[in-house]
Amino acid sequence: MQTVQIVEERKANRIINILSIAIPVAVAVLLGIRQKVDLGDWTTFLPHLNAVINSLTSVLLLIGLYYIKQKNIAGHRVSMLSAFTLGSVFLVSYVLYHLTNESTTFGGQGWIRPVYYFLLVSHIVLSIVVVWFVLRAVYYAISGQIAQHKAVVKWAYPIWLYVSITGVIVYFMIAPYYNH
């Protein structure tokens, strides 16, 4: 039985590692495509939807923290899996937007410009890093490896919360410059 667990663990690790690399690479490749796909004007609404998704994800992360502090495992599980699901929906929506629309240039000047770019760059870098941590945290939770789950969540949670919140802040900072 122990051998089966080791094999399953290795398989899960391999999948998590592959996804942690493949997702950011796929996003980067899709963002680099210069020929945009025309799916209609409805796609111009996606940044607004993404801001709502990031806002809801932030709220769910905070609710999940509250529930676990209250030892409400069921509430924690629902909150965190809902945040994970929203993160997946966000990823699809984000890629779809950038596949169909040109990127918007930030038009702010003065002191706000470096603030915007600091938030944007830290958001992007940490959004790449957090994929591995979140996938690992979800795997450990689902597989009942709670000690390992707690250990990885020490990193995953603050990074994920930061990425979600800065996503909303960056959206509000660039929203006036959308052409739609």
TrEMBL record:
InterPro entries: DUF420 (IPR007352). The chain crosses the membrane at residues 12-33, 45-68, 80-97, 117-139, 159-178. The keyword Transmembrane helix applies. Keywords: Membrane, Transmembrane, Transmembrane helix. The keyword Transmembrane helix applies. Pfam families: DUF420. It comes from the Bacteria. PANTHER family: DUF420 DOMAIN-CONTAINING PROTEIN, HYPOTHETICAL MEMBRANE SPANNING PROTEIN. This is DUF420 domain-containing protein. It comes from Rudanella paleaurantiibacter.
